[in-house]
Design goal:
Mean pLDDT: 91
CATH topology of the largest domain: Rossmann fold
Radius of gyration: 30 Å
Number of helices: 23
Low-confidence stretches: 513-534
Helix content: 40-55%
Largest sheet: 6 strands, parallel
CATH architecture of the largest domain: 3-Layer(aba) Sandwich
Shape: flat
Structural class: alpha/beta
Number of domains: 3
CATH superfamily of the largest domain: HUPs
Strand content: 15-25%
Distance between the termini: 57 Å
Bound molecules: ligand ME8
């Protein structure tokens, strides 16, 4: 069986991860798990793109060196993925030494072959895009993305002779119709290739940019960030001699959104061809998530934080929503209302209720022991359930292979509805009333459990936690066996006689827009809670917080506030701090007390009083205690 290699874009470290990044990476994880279920050996690559102008500018804004800055943001991405149950095999960083070596090697190879030349160029340069624009590409003289007027820059640079490969690329795309898919993006690429292809400027003079990989044939230049970044897909596998490269490269599936179609569909195949490396198998292009019908943007303030959603609704529900809501290839809209609606109707009602009502009956009628299916009763009361299960598994598989995740889920949900109807029609509660129908009751509930087994396996790539919990509660011990596609198309794998654990609610309904705490079984399993406590700020960030010992000189109530006290504290100098501790401390108890404060918090006005710091407490409201030091300390002593 063919191995399977899936890649995501490597994300720029100039911004924190958001919904869009999470979507691509969840899709890659879903595909990776699905192909593993099909018995393939898989490799899943993601990572961060850390060179270029954009990163230098973002670091500058934060007052950090690029090196420190890229470490911090890259870590945010790396730490987010396990929170969303994303299990990648390798996380590549373009600032790694091994990657730089591959970039140098490929550049040299293409240079030696004569496809890189030196020339002077004057053109309109957009700093946001980090590239030159031709007159034709500009819209009213402005960058189509950033809407800014590009600067005219004249410089000598190295160019990659892409024009030489134009006809070859058109022919390749025409010969392999699914090279770029879905078709709308293939058409877009072909339309672009109808115009003459301009050679690509692949260097930046060090006088303008130092943050990049030095060209192996001219140390006055660094490599253009896209030429560097695209090579991650092979450097991560240990190109040219690494075993993973030999095994996985020929099967590669790239996954991107439409924003980076051109570098992936044009620069990248030509780079591979020029370097004598076989081309990728498919470029899979998805659409954009908009939020509340607008493009996600920092300035509008509608950027969706995946971690926030995960914390409230759980990783499974987040993954389910993304996969169910977006038609791969088209744009989609995110809104929390739609999210909650899907959660309640699909997860809590359809799947969750089926699961609970089925297990409740097994506990009620059979003391929680999986009943034996009785020969002779089976066909009478099958009502086509077995055929439905086979059809669901087939439709699901086809849809997953076509990247039609919404359809794959629809196939599962159609089957869920069939089981629900099956229960209504066979009415186990009626069968249970008569001893003579005991055998029928056994068979009906056996069939229901068997249907749930199939569902628990099919949902695995999308909702790995719910899949595991379902399987545990269905008495399926070896999770591995029940996550194989081949087992899911075979009826009758459930073993009778097994005692099932107490039932639980898989997806408790969300009331008033927020998940209930009962959701914890799925939303917050223990290991995830621990993971959240893992440090996710670096020492540099922590050290920016100036914690000091302060002695309280004076305290008084803030008029018209039940909670606030105005303190004057000695922290080497006198600071006024407004603290919400009035319900826990009397004014007179505070005088002379040594507390710990954040001394460099930006001053802010509270009830008209300028507060110059924050007093640290443990707990809040009813049980709030001041953090103090274990013995007298000089006011202003820093905490280390
Ligand atoms: O372009 N909807 O990095 P990037 C869906 N470093 N997906 C979205 C999205 C949205 N609104 N916004 C971003 C780069 N994405 C380069 C890539 S690869 C060799 C170098 C996702 O941080 C989507 O996958 O801008 C998109 O292609 C990618 O993030 C762009 O990430």
């Amino acid at each position: 069986m063919n191995p399977y290699y899936i890649t995501t874009p490597i994300y720029y470290v100039n911004a924190r991860p958001h919904l869009g990044h999470a979507y691509s990476t969840v899709v890659a994880d879903v595909l990776n798990r699905f192909h593993r279920m099909c018995g393939q050996e898989t490799y899943f690559l993601t990572g961060t793109d850390e060179h270029g102008d954009k990163v230098v500018r973002a670091a500058k804004e934060e007052g950090l060196s690029p090196l420190v800055y890229v470490d911090q943001i890259s870590e945010l991405f790396r730490n987010l993925w396990p929170e969303l149950d994303i299990e990648y095999d390798y996380f590549i960083r373009t600032t790694s030494h091994a990657h730089a070596k591959v970039v140098e090697e490929v550049l040299q190879k293409i240079y030696d072959a004569g496809d890189i030349y030196f020339s002077e160029y004057e053109g309109a340069y957009c700093f946001g895009c980090e590239r030159f624009y031709t007159e034709r590409e500009l819209v009213d003289g402005r960058c189509p993305d950033h809407k800014t007027i590009p600067e005219v820059i004249k410089e000598s640079n190295y160019f990659f002779r892409m024009s030489r490969y134009q006809d070859w690329l058109v022919e390749h795309i025409e010969t392999f119709p699914d090279f770029v898919r879905p078709e709308r993006y293939r058409n877009e690429v072909l339309a672009f290739l109808r115009e003459p292809l301009v050679d690509l400027c692949i260097s930046r003079p060090k006088t303008r940019l130092q943050w990049g990989i030095t060209l192996p044939f001219d140390n006055q230049y660094v490599t253009y960030v896209w030429f560097d970044a695209l090579l991650n897909y092979i450097s991560a596998l240990g190109y040219p001699d690494g075993e993973p490269f030999k095994k996985f490269w020929p099967t590669v599936q790239h996954l991107i959104a439409k924003d980076i179609l051109k570098p992936h569909a044009i620069y990248w195949p030509i780079m591979l061809k020029a370097a004598g490396i076989p081309l990728y198998r498919n470029l899979n292009v998805h659409g954009y998530w908009n939020v509340d019908a607008a493009k996600m943007s920092k300035s509008i303030g509608n950027v969706v934080d995946p971690l926030e959603l995960k914390k409230i609704y759980g990783s499974d529900a987040f993954r389910y929503f993304l996969m169910r809501e977006m038609v791969f290839g088209l744009d989609s809209n995110f809104s929390e209302e739609a999210f909650i609606h899907r959660f309640n109707s699909d997860l809590a009602n359809d799947l969750g209720n089926l699961f609970s009502r089925s297990l409740t009956m097994v506990h009620k009628y059979f003391k929680g022991i999986v009943p034996q299916k009785e020969a002779g009763t089976e066909s009478d009361i099958d009502f086509g359930l077995r055929a439905d299960a086979e059809k669901a598994a087939q439709d699901y598989r086809k849809a997953m292979e076509d990247l039609a995740f919404n359809k794959a889920l629809m196939a599962i949900w159609e089957f869920i509805n069939h089981i629900n109807k099956y229960i209504d029609v066979t009415a186990p509660w009626e069968l249970a009333k008569r001893k003579s129908q005991q055998r029928q009751l056994q068979t009906v509930l056996y069939n229901v459990l068997e249907g749930l087994r199939v569902i628990s396996g099919l949902i695995y790539p999308i909702m790995p936690q719910a899949s595991r919990v379902m399987q545990e509660h269905l008495g399926l011990k070896s999770a591995e066996t029940f996550q194989k596609m081949e087992d899911l198309s075979v009826w009758g794998k459930t073993k009778p006689g097994i005692k099932l654990p107490k039932r639980l609610t898989l997806f408790p309904r969300i009331e008033q827009g927020r998940a209930q705490s009962a959701n914890q079984e799925i939303a917050e399993p223990k290991e995830v809670r621990l993971m959240r406590m893992k440090p996710d700020i670096t020492m540099e960030i922590f050290q920016k917080i100036d914690l000091r010992v302060a002695t309280v000189l004076h305290a008084e109530a803030v008029p018209r506030s039940k909670k606030l006290l105005k303190l004057k504290v000695d922290v080497g100098e006198v600071h006024t701090i407004v603290a919400g501790i009035a319900e826990n401390y009397e004014v007179e108890d505070l005088i002379g007390k040594q507390v710990v404060i954040v001394a460099n918090l930006k001053p802010t006005k509270l009830m008209g009083i300028l507060s110059q710091g924050m007093v640290l407490t443990a707990g809040d409201k009813g049980n709030c205690r001041l953090v103090t030091v274990d013995g007298p300390s000089d006011p202003g002593t820093p905490l280390t």
